[in-house]
Structures are given as structure tokens and as C-alpha cells.
Design brief:
It is a single chain. This protein is an all-beta fold. Helices cover 0% and strands 54% of the residues. The chain has no helices and 21 strands. The strands form six sheets. It has a four-stranded antiparallel β-sheet with strand order 4-5-6-7, with no helix packed on it. Strands 8-9-10-11 form a four-stranded antiparallel β-sheet, with no helix packed on it. It is globular, with a radius of gyration of 18 Å. The two termini are 31 Å apart. The site of beta-D-galactopyranose has 8 residues, from β4 and β12.
């Protein structure tokens, strides 16, 4: 929003019952802790009791002018397979619970959100005991799933991060191997609901020890950069898990992901370079 970027994520200080923290930055290097936006035992009576939150994702709804969080709303043994929705007038909260449950009655686990250029929003999650991906189109207020499309049928994918670049949708996803990293795969389509290409490898064998979280678009005066954001879980333990950002590159019109230990981004100009 403006020059500010917001990040929310799991505060795993108490490993199994994350609160949700909010951070802001203007350059992806210096981060400011804005506070806890969802708290165990406070935001919802079952949070920290029968339920925990994983993969919280934040959207701004330009129509309602509200901030909406969708997340994985789960029991300790992953048997609940539900989603949770929270909303606030302000990015830093307080957030109140809108709804929790299975979207359109579907068992739903690992998840993400995607907001298209036209403001149409989707919740996308691993459904049916980690078998398929469910693409759930949301109502205009982003409160409910209104339509379900099955993607990657039977392919056991999770952690799907989608971007709409030019006339193409790109989705980077992972296999279901818990906290261990695996080969990330890319699929593309001209239509978000159908016609997705077969999965192809992207990045190295273990996605540089990450699992896809988001693909960000940084538009500057000289160029546009797409940034891959991945979760590096268990580094070395759950509370110390990290977020890794890498510049997305293009080779012969194909999206590729290379590893750089250190790289520098100029947010204003929209250019980046490897840092020596
Ligand atoms: C990961 C997933 C996490 C969490 C974990 C549990 O693959 O991305 O959100 O569910 O599995 O093992």
C-alpha cells in the first residue's frame, strides 16, 4: 500500500500454536514489527485450544476497504481440514473472525490466496486429504468461497503461489513432504480455471530449501521485478524458520528461479543486481 509492503506470518515461538504477526517494509531489507494481529485464546476462543493457524495470508479488499485474512484452520492432528477467515478495518487490526470451516464442504489444508488484477480473489488449498488443489473463487467481500474448481487433480500438490504476468497465470507449488523441502514445480495457463500445463521443475531439487509462499510484483520507473518468496521451515527448528526471497528470471520467455546468496533490489527503479 503506497510504498509500504506488509507481511504476515506464523509466530512459532510456541511451536505448535502460532500467533499471527504483522511486519512492514519499504525495501525488503529493513523490517518493522507492527504487532500481533491474531492471538491465541483472544481472537477466537478455540485458537490455542482445539485449533491452530497455519499459512495466514492477507488481502486488501478495495471495494469494502477492509483487510481480510484467510488461513489454514487446523486441529493438532490435521483432521479438521478447515479454513479460517478474519477481517479488520485496519491492517494492524484488531481482526475479528468472520467464518471457519470447510470451504464449500471441502476438506482443505495447506493454502494460499490470489488476488487477480481485476480484484477477483481466490483461496487455493490442498483438498481431499492432500490429493487435489481446490481453487475457490471468493464473494465480492472476500468472506466466502462461492465457486470451486479442481486443479492438479490427483497430483498431491501444496503451497501454491500464483501470479498473473502478462496474459499468463503462473503457479509454483510443492509436493506434500511436511516440513522437508522438495522439488518445486511450475504450471502455466491463460485461464486460471482451466488449461493448466503439465508440471515442470523450477529451481533446484529442494527449491533452494524453501516452499513457495508468494510471488510479488515490484513495479519501478525502469522495470518490473517479480520476487519469489519461500518459507524455509525448520532452520534449524520451527520457531527459527526463515523467509527467503529470490528474483524471478526469464530465459527464452520461460520463468526460472536461480539462487543468489545476496542480491540487491532498487524498489524505485524496479531493477535488481547480484550483490558481490
Ligand atoms: C507443510 C505446510 C505447513 C505445515 C506442514 C506440516 O508442508 O506447508 O503449512 O502444514 O507441512 O507438516
Amino acid at each position: 500500500m503506497g510504498n509500504k509492503w506488509y507481511l504476515i506470518g506464523e509466530d512459532r515461538a510456541r511451536s505448535w500454536n502460532p500467533d499471527v504477526n504483522l511486519y512492514s517494509t519499504e525495501d525488503f531489507v529493513h523490517w518493522h514489527f507492527e504487532g500481533k494481529i491474531i492471538k491465541n485464546h483472544e481472537t477466537h476462543p478455540e485458537l490455542g485450544k482445539s485449533r491452530m493457524i497455519e499459512r495466514p495470508k492477507l488481502m486488501y479488499n478495495a471495494k469494502t476497504k477492509k483487510f481480510v485474512v484467510w488461513c489454514h484452520w487446523e486441529a493438532r492432528d490435521y483432521s479438521a481440514s478447515e479454513a479460517g477467515v478474519f477481517e479488520s478495518d485496519n491492517v494492524a487490526g484488531p481482526y475479528t473472525c468472520v467464518w471457519t470451516g470447510r470451504p464449500l464442504g471441502t476438506k482443505s489444508r495447506d493454502c494460499n490466496i490470489f488476488v487477480d488484477n481485476d480484484g477477483e480473489a481466490y483461496f487455493i488449498s490442498t483438498t481431499d486429504e492432500n490429493t487435489n488443489l481446490g481453487l475457490f473463487q471468493l464473494s465480492p467481500d472476500y468472506h466466502n468461497a462461492v465457486e470451486k474448481t479442481v486443479l492438479c487433480k490427483g497430483q498431491r500438490r501444496e503451497a501454491p503461489a500464483i501470479a498473473h504476468i502478462g496474459d499468463t497465470y503462473y503457479m509454483i507449488s510443492s509436493a506434500c513432504t511436511g516440513w522437508d523441502p522438495n522439488q518445486a514445480k511450475l504450471a502455466t495457463s491463460k485461464n486460471i480455471k482451466e488449461g493448466w500445463s503439465p508440471l515442470e521443475n523450477i529451481g533446484d531439487r529442494i527449491a533452494y530449501d524453501t516452499q513457495a509462499s508468494s510471488i510479488l510484483k515490484v513495479e519501478g520507473t525502469e522495470g518490473t521485478i517479480y520476487v519469489y518468496v519461500g518459507d524455509r521451515w525448520m532452520d534449524p527448528n520451527l520457531p527459527q524458520s526463515k523467509i527467503i526471497m529470490l528474483p524471478i528470471e526469464w530465459e527464452d520467455g520461460k520463468m526460472v528461479l536461480n539462487y543468489y546468496d545476496s542480491w540487491q533490489i532498487d524498489m524505485k527503479r524496479g531493477v535488481w543486481r547480484v550483490k558481490k
